[in-house]
Description:
Blueprint: E1 2-5, E2 15-21, E3 28-29, E4 34-39, E5 44-48, E6 53-58, E7 65-67, E8 71-76, H1 97-100, H2 105-112, H3 134-142, H4 161-168, H5 189-203, E9 207-215, H6 217-226, H7 232-246, E10 252-255, E11 258-261, E12 267-273, E13 276-282, H8 290-306, E14 319-323, E15 342-346, E16 350-356, E17 359-373, H9 379-394
Amino acid sequence: xxxxxxxxxxxxxxxxxxxxxxxxxxxxxxxxxxxxxxxxxxxxxxxxxxxxxxxxxxxxxxxxxxxxxxxxxxxxxxxxxxxxxxxxxxxxxxxxxxxxxxxxxxxxxxxxxxxxxxxxxxxxxxxxxxxxxxxxxxxxxxxxxxxxxxxxxxxxxxxxxxxxxxxxxxxxxxxxxxxxxxxxxxxxxxxxxxxxxxxxxxxxxxxxxxxxxxxxxxxxxxxxxxxxxxxxxxxxxxxxxxxxxxxxxxxxxxxxxxxxxxxxxxxxxxxxxxxxxxxxxxxxxxxxxxxxxxxxxxxxxxxxxxxxxxxxxxxxxxxxxxxxxxxxxxxxxxxxxxxxxxxxxxxxxxxxxxxxxxxxxxxxxxxxxxxxxxxxxxxxxxxxxxxxxxxxxxxxxxxxxxxxx
Length: 405
């Protein structure tokens, strides 16, 4: 018996959700046929049959999650479909036209493989033809289900085995008192994966958040001169990358009860999408010029929102930045993206009145929220990193590239 196991689709993902099965138990499949579609927090993948045979048992049903290495289904190699015999051409015997008219209605159905035509003048519409895999068509016949009345819930509206089974056994009437509230959203798919990872992050680490203001008056002035060539996220990322270079203990992973320092600075950026929060990654961010970093972030954000993010563009981060600066939010408590040991939250820049030498001046200040895993970083080292970052933001010439002549 061949076991169809869930492969490791991403280095940072250990679990996937079964979205839809393209086959049913008892179906004959050939090597290379589509079997199942699975979804992680960041992407959707299709798994193909690695062996020919008959689907003996589906172990993980649609809507259920499976861990890497878990058996999704069993394929019986002995049930491999036999090669179809080649039909030999036979001579066609001509018959008179009156004889041809004797064909019965059943014969016509066998030839056309369609349901009976409606009688002339009848008001009902002719049943529509439905394109579907042979195995699913067989299942529909066994359960006496009219495929023309089944609403597909699979990719591109395709009919799945569950759709056919649900049509054969419609759910019983729901007790109104026990019914789910209207508009209830199940914690499944990407939303469910995010929920699980965030809970695991809080349960399996000791998270501490430190907050501080950064005076960004000079940085605002520099940003205005650059116009739209460089965004705020790219500017802040360059300062973060330089601060990490000076404090390498903040640029690390924690796994198997060990702290693993990372030599490369791969910044992750939390992107809000319709499917939920996703992280895009710029490899070796410290080596990428600010304008190029800005362009890269715009490109990655668009890919994330359109579901076209490649695996390498969403994994391997060593430190994450998340921003709520577009809203009226100051400080918050960002949750660490495992296996990293720190995440920086960016709030909204606001005006701030300062008294200097008896005069009131208007300054610009930026709220920063740094969450660290206290198992790997103590409060004082985290504060030193935050202080270093604030110093850079207050003196942008320390991290911004000089304009080329």
